[in-house]
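Example 254.
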Amino acid sequence: MAKPILVANWKNHPGSLSEAGVLLKQLSGSARLYQKLSLFIAPPLPYLESVSLRTGNFAHLALQDFPASSDGTHTGMVTPDILKSFGVKLAIIGHSERRALGETNDSVAQKVKAALRSGILSLVCVGELSRDQDGEHFEFLREQIKLSLAGLNRKTDISKLALAYEPVWAIGKRADDAITPADLSQSVIFIKKVLVDMFGRTIAERIPILYGGAVEPVDATALFGGTGIKGFLVGHASLNAKSFKTIAESLIRK
Ligand code: PEP
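Predicted structure in complex with phosphoenolpyruvate:
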């Protein structure tokens, strides 16, 4: 069975390379635990090398985003091919904080194709802005998934694709405000149905769905158990080595 997937989205933290060094040292103390997972760390770009040097035996490098480029020369742009040559294995694409700055479903779809061409695993973020009793948010989700994965087909290398279900209303909140396991299960079933409609059952079943949004040590076990997800995308709790370790443990405890 595939290992659970854990992705740390450090965003614009820690605030300095020396603070990142402290966090990396703490994380490496749990290297044996992390080896039981597929762990990816998405640091601010200038920290890539430090992260790679200190976590090479237990974590892979990931990107928080990358520019959608076409052929030609692009001043100021760091393309997926360059980043891949640094050992990057996964790219978070379409995070809600990027969408809030103007990222569209269309640019997400272009980036997914660029990442697939470079052999980088695409972790495509989707999630409703708010949840309503009538289930309107499911329509939003269906549209977002279809448009974000537009242009992919059954022949695409789906082994390089994963989805992160991140309801925007839960991101950056505390565990008490996170989604309930029952609601998460419902959303995961819905997402799987959309993927089956797009790619057919056999392929859709191979696309892992992760959850992100206020995952903390206190809610990780309940959110992982029986909800159909294959792992977590973690924001603020990934910056605290102790919290992150507890979240990792929840993924391997059966
Ligand atoms: C995120 O921003 O991807 C995220 C999941 O954040 P948090 O864990 O802080 O809610």
